[in-house]
Amino acid sequence: MNNLNHVAIIMDGNGRWGLKKKRSRNYGHLKGLNAVENLIKLAIKRKIPYLTLYTFSTENWKRPDNEINFLFCLIRKHIKKNLKKIIKQGIKIKIIGSKKNLPRDIIGSLKLIEKKTKNNNVIVINLALNYGSKQEIINACRNLVNKKNKKIDLNSFEGELYTKNIPDPEILIRTGGTKRLSNFLLWQLAYTEIFFVDKLWPDFNKNDFDKIIMKFNKIKRNFGKI
Q1: Contact 183, 58 (CB under 8 A)
Q2: Residue 44 CB: number of other CB atoms within 10 A?
Q3: Is residue 60 annotated as part of the catalytic site, yes or no?
Q4: Which residues, at least 6 apart from 83, have a Cβ–Cβ distance to it below 8 Å?
Q5: Distance, CA of 105 to CA of 97 (rounded, Å)
Q6: Is 143 inside any structural domain?
Q7: What is the domain extent for residue 208?
Q8: 38, 60, 82, 143: which is the annotated catalytic residue?
Q9: To which H or E segment does residue 178 belong?
Q10: CA atoms of 113 and 107, how far apart (whole Å)
């Protein structure tokens, strides 16, 4: 059985799911949040220490304003409604990505939830919000250049990433039937096992997750060795 410390997920297909149900894309995002809550419960049950969710990419700013505003409204409401429950469950929330361009109240809410959950240790949920991996790598390079006496190696470089002190994912799951990484954790996924799922995100369930873990446990992970 392989060690499993970190699962990363590209939750693709919410908008298409809403349209498929003859509703709006925003309705799909709302239902996708239910799938997130179920997955977190399952990850806790499976004793997975880290879960990273691609919540909003730097490219998502290209979407219509009403969809962007709805997504941020979901974040606001979810934090306000569930903060006490998140704390009680022992969930630690960490935001990875740039806070630049985010609404001021969203930044305040994110700082609050990070502060309130910083001592929790049941599971760490990394929310990749306004996240772009290429920009993350550029930022890390810039930081190292500015630290003139800093030795440049793997450890010092990774220490400048948003994911500092977070183990690289062993599993990446992308729902929605699309087979690409979409500027997500490009550095961190060097030796990650990648699973593409045809289901749209709101339809992703316990059985899908457990099947992926079973497949992962059957993989011989050589990391360049024989």
Answers
A1: yes
A2: 17
A3: yes
A4: 112, 113, 116
A5: 16
A6: no
A7: 6-131+169-183+192-217
A8: 60
A9: none
A10: 10
Residue 209: closest CA among 175, 165, 166: 175
The DSSP letter of residue 12 is -
Report yes or no on 116 lying in a domain: yes
Cα–Cα distance, 4 to 170 (Å, whole number): 6
For Cα atoms 53, 199, 96, give the angle at the middle one, nearest 5 degrees: 10
The answer to whether 94 touches 167, Cβ cutoff 8 Å, is no
Report the C-alpha gap between 10 and 173 in whole angstroms.
6
Q: What is the rounded CA–CA span in Å between residue 197 and residue 195? A: 6
**């991996």: which residue's tokens?**
133
Q: Where are the beta strands (DSSP E) in the chain?
A: 6-10, 50-57, 91-96, 123-131, 171-174, 193-196
- Catalytic status, residue 26: no
> Is this prediction's pTM over 0.90?
yes
Token reading at 221 = 């992970």
Dihedral pair phi/psi, residue 114, rounded to 5°:
-65, -40
Task: Give the pLDDT confidence of 7-26 residue by residue, as tens digits.
Answer: 999 999 999 999 999 999 99
Comparing 99-108, 127-136, 180-189, the range with the smallest average pLDDT is 99-108
Number of domains in the chain: 1
Give the CATH number, domain containing residue 205: 3.40.1180.10
> Is the Cβ–Cβ distance between 6 and 47 less than 8 Å?
no
Q: Considering the candidates 2, 3, 5, 12, report the single residue annotated as catalytic.
A: 12
Residue 142 forms part of a structural domain: no
